[in-house]
């Protein structure tokens, strides 16, 4: 069953209803792919779905009033779910931050285009959710009410932020990936010199931009002093070892509009088909191992000493997850994490 992009909301709702009747457990994201439309196009057809104004600062600050909720950020390979409270919120221009001890986010509002409140008991939100999408209707970030969320609090916030007269959503086509520069056009020596001169991990992206190299391309060109190719199952190895040893880690999952971070130990891991899962009381992660193409062990010099990361890319070469040792600026890297990363990568430090 498929739907064209010019389906009316009513006809699309009917198609989706038929699909749900045939497959009651089908997730909305999978249903959208089956029907050939965006996930947001299906959300828009839901009875009771409430369109919000594009006031992202008001949304973030309003979330701090709710108490415990569940924050979800995903890409095509990884789903990151963290329970906690939105605290220490900042929103300025096109960038937002949430810096609480549990929910830790970096937000890029240029990619935030639509948002809806989905009422309780509707597909994808058993207790209600606010769901944010980009211009193509792809999910960027979602906030779910939980058993610990005050009854009706999320809906009350949504009604305060509701768009009084929303126009029908017009979704853009997914932008094609821009081809990168050939290796021959990258000054690899200058890239390596810049890499060696890093003082902070946050200087890495400006280095990539200056060099014109893509992230994966830079890892290839950096040399083994800074980047080493790992087994494709490196993330599963790291998670398993971290759970066995109690080593606290940082787990970054990204899409163009959001980076969501978990910091702390992990406990329960489980493999279910192609999915490698972390199933902890306040943190769940679901990694589709069949979509992973490459993994790398990366070292970046900083003023606090070297920082080690394990970086995971999908089969298209897109970064989908980064793993670090738990640390704060001004602190040296946990040597337990460094040893774990090297050991599970099956490489030996020089």
What does this structure look like?
The chain has 10 helices and 18 strands. It has helices at 9-22, 28-35, 39-45, 56-63, 153-160, 188-196, 204-211, 215-222, 234-245, 335-344; strands at residues 50-51, 69-74, 78-84, 89-92, 95-99, 104-108, 114-118, 129-133, 139-144, 227-230, 249-255, 258-264, 269-272, 275-279, 283-288, 292-300, 307-314, 319-325.
List the helices and strands and how they pair.
Elements: H1 9-22, H2 28-35, H3 39-45, E1 50-51, H4 56-63, E2 69-74, E3 78-84, E4 89-92, E5 95-99, E6 104-108, E7 114-118, E8 129-133, E9 139-144, H5 153-160, H6 188-196, H7 204-211, H8 215-222, E10 227-230, H9 234-245, E11 249-255, E12 258-264, E13 269-272, E14 275-279, E15 283-288, E16 292-300, E17 307-314, E18 319-325, H10 335-344
Antiparallel strand pairs: 1-7, 2-3, 2-9, 3-15, 4-5, 5-6, 6-12, 7-8, 8-9, 10-16, 11-12, 11-18, 13-14, 14-15, 16-17, 17-18
Descriptive keywords:
10 helices; alpha+beta; 29% strand; 9-stranded antiparallel β-sheet; globular
Outline of this structure?
Helices cover 26% and strands 29% of the residues. The chain has 10 helices and 18 strands.
Count of extended strands = 18
Rg? 21 Å
Biggest beta sheet attributes? 9 strands, antiparallel
Structure annotation, total helices = 10
Please state roughly what percent of the residues sit in beta strands, choosing from under 5%, 5-15%, 15-25%, 25-35%, 35-45% or over 45%: 25-35%
Mean pLDDT: 93
Shape: globular
Distance separating the two termini: 55 Å
Proportion in helices:
25-40%
- Spatial sequence of strands, sheet with the most strands: 1-7-8-9-2-3-15-14-13
- Unreliable spans are none
SS-derived structural category: alpha+beta
Secondary-structure element pattern, one letter each: HHHEHEEEEEEEEHHHHEHEEEEEEEEH
């Amino acid at each position: 069953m498929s739907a064209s992009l010019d389906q009316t909301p009513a006809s699309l709702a009917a198609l989706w209803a038929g699909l749900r009747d045939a497959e009651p457990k089908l997730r909305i994201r999978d249903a959208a792919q089956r029907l050939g439309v965006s996930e947001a196009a299906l959300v828009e057809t839901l009875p009771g779905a409430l369109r919000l104004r594009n006031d992202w600062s008001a949304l973030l600050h309003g979330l701090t009033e709710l108490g415990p909720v569940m924050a979800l950020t995903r890409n095509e390979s990884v789903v990151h779910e963290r329970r906690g409270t939105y605290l220490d919120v900042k929103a300025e221009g096109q960038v937002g931050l949430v810096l609480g001890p549990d929910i830790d986010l970096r937000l890029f509002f240029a990619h935030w285009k639509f948002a809806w409140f989905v009422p309780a008991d509707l597909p994808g939100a058993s207790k209600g959710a606010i769901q944010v999408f980009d211009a193509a209707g792809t999910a960027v970030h979602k906030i779910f009410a939980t058993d610990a969320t005050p009854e009706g609090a999320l809906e009350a916030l949504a009604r305060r932020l509701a768009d009084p007269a929303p126009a029908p959503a017009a979704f853009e086509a997914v932008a094609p990936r821009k081809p990168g520069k050939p290796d021959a056009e990258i000054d690899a020596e200058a890239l390596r010199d810049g890499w060696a001169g890093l003082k902070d991990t946050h200087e890495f992206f400006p280095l990539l931009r200056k060099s014109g190299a893509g992230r994966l391309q830079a890892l290839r060109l950096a040399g083994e002093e800074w980047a080493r190719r790992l087994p494709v199952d490196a993330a599963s190895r790291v998670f398993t070892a971290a759970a066995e040893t109690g080593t606290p880690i940082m787990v970054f999952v990204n899409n163009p509009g959001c980076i969501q971070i978990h910091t702390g130990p992990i406990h329960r891991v489980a493999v279910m088909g192609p999915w490698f899962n972390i199933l902890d009381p306040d943190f769940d992660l679901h990694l589709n191992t069949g979509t992973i193409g490459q993994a790398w062990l990366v070292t970046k010099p900083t003023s606090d000493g070297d920082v080690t990361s394990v970086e995971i890319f999908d089969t298209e070469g897109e970064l989908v997850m980064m793993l670090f040792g738990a640390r704060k600026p001004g602190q040296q890297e946990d040597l337990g994490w460094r040893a774990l990363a090297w050991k599970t990568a099956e490489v030996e430090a020089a």
